Every structure is written in C-alpha cells, then in structure tokens.
Amino acid sequence: MSLSRRDFLKASGATAAGVAAGGGVDLAPVQAAATSLRIKEAKVFAGVCPYCAVGCGQLIYAKDNTIIDIEGNPDTPHTLGRLCPKGAATIQLSNNPLRPTKALYRAPGSDKWEERPLEWMYERIAKRYYDTREQHFIETEKNKDGQDVTVNRLEAIASLGSACIDNEECYLLSKLNRTLGIVYHEHQARV
Amino acid sequence: MTTNLIDIQNADVIMATSNMAENHPVGFQWVMKAKERGAKLIHVDPRYTRTSAAADLHVPLRSGTNIVFFGGLIRYAIEKNLYFRDYVVHYTNASFLIDPAFKTPTDLDGLFTGYDPAKKSYDRSSWKYQLDGEGNPKRDLTLRDPNTVFQLLRRHYGRYTVEMVEKVCGIPRAKFEETAKLFCSNAGPDKTGTITYALNLTQHTNGVENIRALAMLQLLLGNIGRPGGGIVALRGHANVQGATDLELLYHELPGYLPMPLRDAHPDLQTYLERETPKGGYWVNRPKFMVSLLKAFYGDAATKDNEYGYHWLPKRASADAYSHQHIFADMYEGKIKGFLADGQNPAVGGPNAKLARAAMHKLDWMVVVDIFLTETAEVWKAPGTNPKDVKTEVFFIPAAPAAEKDGSLTNTMRLIQWHQKAVDPPGMVQTDAQFFCTLAHRLQKLYAGSTKSRDKGFLAANFTYGAKPDHPDMVQVLKEINGFATEDITDKDGNVVYRKGQAVASFGHLTDDGKTASGCWIYTGVVTETPDGTLTNKADARKPADDKDYLGHGWGFAWPANRRIIYNRAAADLKGRPWSEKKKLVWWDPKAPGAKPEDKPGKWVGLDVPDFNPLLAPDAKNGDKPFIMRSDLVGGLFGPLNDGPFPEHYEPVESPVTNMLSKTQINPVVKIWTVPDGKNELAAVGAAEYPYVITTYRLTEHHLSGVMSRYLPMLAELHHSHFAEISHELARELKIENGEKITVLSPRGKVHVTAMVTNRFKPFVIDGKTIHQIGVPWHWGWNGIEKLPGSRGDITNDLSATVGDPNVYIQETKAFVCNVKKGVV
C-alpha cells in the first residue's frame, strides 16, 4: 500500500492506516495523540525553510508568542512535507540561548562588546554613513574621452548580503544602496 | 533554473554533477521518483557521495576539468549522430553562418581570434554572424557550410576525444563511453534528460563557460523547454535566486537591467539605445527601466530629468566592485565603511584571511545577523590583538524568517510567502526594519539639502504602511510588482488601471512614467481589483493534483507563473507535441484565441506558455522558442569574455600542464595583485603543493556555519572539522584515520581531522598519479562552547583571490595544497 505522509495525516486516527505504516504495530492512536497535544491551543502559520534554495514549505506552530514546533507542510507540491536535518532544526534559530537579542557596540581598539540602546545605534550608524558619504562622494568624473560625466558614486562604503533575507528586504537594500550612490553592492550569489 | 524540481520525475536520464542527495536532499526525491519510473542516474563528481550511492553510474573526474568532460559528450553526440537534428536546425543557431575571419583554439593553440596579450582581453569583432542584405543572419539549414556554427562546433570539439577525456579528466575510456552512450541516447522526440549543477561548476575561473558547455549539450540533445529536460540549477541559500533577481549585485539593477557605466551610458537615451536589442523580448527594456526609476524616485522622476537616471551611480568600469574587488580594495584602504547583512565573509568568501585583514582596516562596520558571526567579531580573530583593530563595530541582532512576513524565491524561480509566527525578541530587528529606519535617519540628516546629488535619495520612499519603523511587506511586494502612477485609460477612454492599482502583467508596463515597477519579472505576483483588494499570489497554497502536476496554484513562479521556461520548444515547428509522451505546451488551432472575435488558435497545455499565446506556429517567428534572445534561438555559439565556445584551460593552480593547448590558464582570467603577500599562487606542478583540493558542503551544516554552528541540533552531528583523503594518500603520508593533519596552500593552513576514506581515489592523469582531497568549509572559531566540534579552522584561508573573467567568481572548487601529518 502506497501512503503519502499527507494521506497519513489526513487519515490520522484510522487504525488501518496506522497498521499499514507501522508494519503491524498500531501506531495511529499514538500519532494522533502526539499530534493533537503538540498543536493544542497553538496557532499554525505557513513558513518556508530558511536554509537551502529548495524552499520546503513548513508549518510553524506558535503559542503565547513562542514557536513550539516546526514541521514540513505536506501540501507543498515540490517538497511534499519533507524536511532535511537543517530544515528540521529551524526552531533553534528562534529558540536559542546563544542568540543575541541586544544591540552591541565595539569601540575602536576595544576588546569587548557593550550594550547600547537601538536609538543610539541608529543615530550613530546614520552619522557614519552620512560623514563617509559627504567626505568621499564622487559627483563628476572624466570619461575616456576626457569629458565630464555626472557619476554620483560613493565608493567608500561597501555592502554585502544577503541571500538569506526576503525579496522585499533585498529590494529595500538595493533601493537604499543605489539611491545613496553605493556601487560595492554584492551578496552570496557571487561566491 | 529552466525547469522545476517536480518535473525531474519525467526525465529518462539524469546527470547530477553536484552532490544533490546531500546538499538538496528534499529536492532529490524527484530524482528518486524518476528512478522509480525507470530513469537512469549518472553522478559526475570527484568524490563518492550519497548521490553516487543512488546512481547507476558514478563517474569521478579531476576537479577543474568539466569542459573536457562536456566537450567529450558534445563530440560524442555529434559523431554518433545522437543529437536531436530537427530541434538543433530550427531552435538553435547551429545553422547560422559565422564571419570567416573567426578562428577557434583548434587553429590558434588555445586562443580564439582577436586575443591581445598585452591587455589580456579579446577583440571580439569577428565573433559574429554573417548578415544578408536585410541585416538578418545567413543560415544553411543543411548544416554543411564550414562556417556554420554547427561545423565550427564540430571542429572545435573534434579535439575532445575519449582519449583526451581519459588523459585530462582521469575517466577511463570505457567508463566515459558508457556514460556518453547512456546520456546521449536518451534524447529525441520520445526521450529527455536533465542535468543538475551547483557551485561545483560555478566556482572556477571558467565557471560561466562550464555552465555554457552543459547548456550547449542540452540544446544539442533537444532537452531545453521540454518535460524531463532542462537545466537544474541548485542554489544554496533560501533566497539566492531572489537576491539575484532583486540585484544585490554590483553589475545590475533589479530585473537584470545593466548598472550604468560611465563611458557607455552617459545618459538615459544612450543607455536604452545601447542596451535594447532589435529582437526578442528585451525590446521592452525601456519600459522596465523607466518603471524601475519611477519605483525608486517616485514623483521626482520625470521625463524632463530622464526619470532620475543621473541620480543612479555610474560605474567607472565593468571590472570593479565585485566581492573579490571589495576585499582587495578594502585591504588597500579604499573602502572606509562596510555593511555585512546576513553574510559572513570572515569565513565564507575566498581568501578569508585577506577578507579579515581587510576588515581590520575599516573605519567602521555594521553587522546585521541572527548570531554573532566571525565577521562581527573579526577583532577577536585568532592571532589578532583587539587593540590593533581600530574598526568601530555595530551589531544589530536580526530576525529569522519565522519572525517576519515576506517572500523567498526558491531555486526554481518560485516565490513563496512566509507568515510571521511570533514577534522577534528583545531589540531584534527585521532586515527591512533596519534598512527603512536607517534610510529615515539618513533622510533626516540630508533634509534641506539643495545639492542635486542628494535629491534622488531624498525623493526615495522608505515608508510602507502606517508605521514607518514597521514596514508592511505586502506594500513593498506591491512596489516590486508594479502599479499605475496615474489613471491609465485605453483608446476609448475607459480606465484600465486606476492610480495606485497594481499592474497585472509586465506586458502592461510603460516607458512614459505611467507605471512604476521595482522588478519587472515579478509583475503578476500581486493583483489588485479597482476597489483596492490585493491578492498576494506568493501566498497561494493550492496543492498540485493530477490535472496540474506542476502546481501552478502554489506560490508564483516568475515570469508570469511559468514553471518550465522556453516551453514553446516542447512542440515541433508546426506546434504539435514532439511526442505524446513528452507533451507540455502545444498549439490548439481550434481553441478560442484572439479577441474580440475569438479567432481560433492558441498555445495551450500543462504549463503557462512561455510565448506569445496567440502567435501561430506558421506566423513570423512563431517557430522560434527562445524569446529572451535577440535572434530567438538557442545559442550554441554565444560570445562571452573568454570565447564563444567553452575551451578547456587548467585551473589557475594545477599540478599538470594543459594537454589541449599551450594556453595553460584562461587567457583572460582575473588575478588580483594584493600587497604583503596576501594572494600568493602556486606555480604549475609546484612540488610543495602537489595535491588537488576541492571544497564542499555537508547536509548537517549550512554554508559559513552561521545558521548551524550555534544550533545544538546541528552542531553536534559532526565530530569536528575534517578533510577527506584517500587510503592511498594516507598510506603514502603515514596518516591514520582520525588523527590531526595540516592542509596548506600558499595563502594559509588549517588543522583538521583526517577522514581516510574510499570516497576519494587517486586519479591517473596522463599516466601519472594525482591525488585529490576534499575539505568542507562550514567552520570558524565561533560555535557552541560545550561542543568543541562546532568550532574549527577556516577552510577559505586556503583559497585564492582569482576570478572568472565574466562574473569574477572565485576558484574554490579546484586549486592545490599540501597535506602534512600532525599539527605543523
């Protein structure tokens, strides 16, 4: 009997399906109980795996603003609910004690990070962008024939990343960099 | 990727050139499905992997010799008459006549016509078609004229014999013939084959020509645009396709529009004239470019100011600003400030030692990432005294996908929306929040500026929705999609789009400023009714079924939700499927077609036609499927910076001399000169670096390790950083499995665990034994303290700053090293 995971989930509770999948051991009630406990009172959201570019559909279960489980979405036509070890570990990108949740600053020559308010960070970063742009902006340049051409180029700031961020974010970064005149503008596709 | 993962199941033969089972495991199920249906799997890889274990044939070849292998297959397909003749004659430029002055490496010892050794570049003036009196390319449909592309190709690859393949690649003759027969025999009206690739082919100083070689083979066998055919490009990051489409790349603007060059593009009119071809779909480029400028600069972009064209930066040169240029130029002090957003070049890029030394020279750096990467902590790098690093560093914690709304474009051009499940914790920012907030702060600093150079930036909008610091991602996607900037009416005065309404198709974009679109190829991902109801098709979730195996109701594949591109080629000249078994898109002469009278005749089928749906096969150009090319046919002859046909050159670092010609390495290769010995290269056959080394990835880790080394579920799965070496090499060097070894290159060294394995076997190259080793590259000095194996030396300290002459990608798949027992 050929049984896809999606059929199995749909049939959860059906003893015959459990017998078939479990090779004679009736797993269906266990499966059903585990499934209902895990998602009890949780809200489910449609996710996409953030690792490689196969783009496996995920189901993200959240309760009290915390992710409690992430699994493959069996409806996804090109992945059919499967996840690899990385996709199956996605929850630890969010729920992870090693994850910094504060903005950090390292002064020139310092050997440590210092916590700083976001407001302070944004002001300071903007000032560094502004000063660097003001000092190094190239407005016109001679072309190969010796004529002046408007080039409006900023070569003193470089930008890298990212193939890990969303399309909308990539667009905003392209728009920000290009409207500022930034030309060193790259991401992982180049390497 | 020309096709779709789901469609791999329709292949009769699959040639995997990457390690798909381990690097794209969930996609690999479609290869297994094809096998269940009778397909054969060939795995071409120097190393035996889980992909090889599933294969009917494993074909190891020495890294860096792909063009000899593909060239050998091209020669085999032609000489054994296995190419798909009707397809080749009508759907490719095989029949086109080339300028008689054009000569190939067969005549010029490894060079094409026009090489200038002083400039290390080609004068490409003879690399062109012969034209008739009306300016159309001359053709010989018999393919017999010696100046046809077909005959030139045949002659060029005449040198790529089975003996040459054996000598250069190290593939025994019988094995190569078995491979060639298996792949090339599964072609024609009833059969198709597909080829997968990943960075195994791109990370070379002839990376682009590698891809061209496999594309040419697929054209010769009639495998493009057909079910079970195509080219399966397997990308490594969740959104490397999207970040490319939206052009986080120095050389283009969103939607594959060239980034203006100072000398070539002094104004918008010159830009459009030079970059708009006379034929093919790119004749519409002005509509896409003007719509992009409107998306960037809004109402400030007007016809009178060339839609803000001069606010865009103009590049000084085409040979500048790439990833490798960044770190070479940063090391020389040219770059003062740096943003690393979701990228970890201290580990992940070539010559990582140079990258770290370069970052030490910056005035300031901003890192936005989920974890504290080695890039953020570059001042803590081993061997570095933080006191000596004067770089001011800002770290902004970032949110992973589960904590934000947005879309990702997967390897098959499929745009999929993900929903925010929880709020990011603490001060964590989404990348969008960071960009918009930074833009707002900068606009405040520039407020009141009357300088013309600041006007474009001040005009650009970074507010989407009601909360400026929480941008509404659907509104950003709508701007990418495109919308009307004023009411647009038809010739009878009826409103087609009201002002602000999303545009439904890139065919509706205009070059008069009436539409704005941030990336024309994405148009259609959002639709909107006149009363403002938006539908986000990236968020569509209808599973596939028997009637629609390609799953058109799940997400939105650019362009226009087409799942297999160039699919006009799935039908013959008259529009009929080549065979019942391989039908996909065909001309239905009875289907209601052109409005308003529903004149019969339309392209129909199992996919959205990648063609004008009403252009009859017998109409002008109705038989030419490759609509994005100006000549509308597949390019067997296709000029790149290093030639119109792929030719084999050895990697920049190689243990052997080139056996095809006296031209040792790509004659137009980019090699950076970096001061202080930061980019030393080994000479050909250098005794101190006798082994070939290739770098690769593992299932349990991700790229530079930022999304795996800090996750216990993944970090515990590998004991330590390691190198795979053959039993034969281990015996020579008296190395035991599991002991520490040192791998050295002219740039640096790493200490890793020896994994002595049968997965590598020495190659016999021109009668001589050549050893190759493999080293994964996921490790850096950060990780989980309690899991020492999550930390390790940086493999990219070994690789060099050298680049392909077309796109400047590095050569991390084939260079040379030495291996020493113990920690030295």
Q: Overview of this structure, please?
A:
The complex is a heterodimer of chains A (191) and B (824). Chain A has three domains: 1-40, no CATH class; 41-99, ADC-like domains (N-terminal domain of TfIIb, Single Sheet), CATH 2.20.25.90; 116-190, no CATH class. Helix content of chain A is 35%, strand content 26%. Chain A is built from seven helices and eight strands; from the N terminus they run αααβββααββαββαβ. Chain A has helices at 5-10, 15-22, 28-39, 85-88, 91-94, 118-136, 167-180, and strands spanning 43-48, 57-63, 66-72, 104-106, 114-115, 137-142, 148-160, 182-186. In chain A, the strands form three sheets. In chain A, strands 1-2-3 form a three-stranded antiparallel β-sheet, with no helix packed on it. The radius of gyration of chain A is 26 Å and the shape is elongated. Chain B is α/β, with parallel strands linked by helices and 824 residues long. Chain B folds into four domains: 5-233, Dimethylsulfoxide Reductase, domain 2 (3-Layer(aba) Sandwich); 251-315 and 472-538, no CATH class; 321-404 and 423-471, Rossmann fold; 670-821, Barwin-like endoglucanases (Beta Barrel), CATH 2.40.40.20. Chain B is 22% helix and 16% strand. A six-stranded mixed β-sheet of chain B has the order 26-28-27-33-25-31. In chain B, helix 4 (66-79) runs antiparallel to helix 8 (162-169), helix 4 (66-79) crosses helix 9 (173-185) and helix 4 runs parallel beside helix 11 (207-220). Chain B is globular. The model of chain B has no long low-confidence stretch (mean pLDDT 98). The chains are: A alpha+beta (191), B alpha/beta (824). At the A-B interface, strand 1, strand 2, strand 3, helix 4 and helix 5 of A face helix 12, helix 14, helix 15, strand 10 and strand 11 of B. Strand 4 of chain A pairs antiparallel with strand 12 of chain B, so a sheet runs across the interface.
